[in-house]
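Hey, I'm writing a tutorial for new members on how sequence and structure tokens pair up, and I'd like a real worked example in the thread rather than a made-up one. If someone can provide the structure for the chain below, I'll link this post from the tutorial.
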Amino acid sequence: MAISRPMLLVFLLLILIMTSQFEWRHQIVDFDMTPSVTPKQQQISRREEAVKEKNIQRLQELVRSLQQQILED
């Protein structure tokens, strides 16, 4: 049984999203455990989180788009 190319792309994107979120959450936990964090580091961390959230949203939109294309075929 062969997997179609769009289905494979959706599967790979889902894996990418799940593993990326796990890694980011793990880094956040490590970051929260650091005793002294400067305000500048906190600001950078917040900006990085915002960028990551945007990337996650873009990936989710891409997955939805691919799923819709699969359903239309």
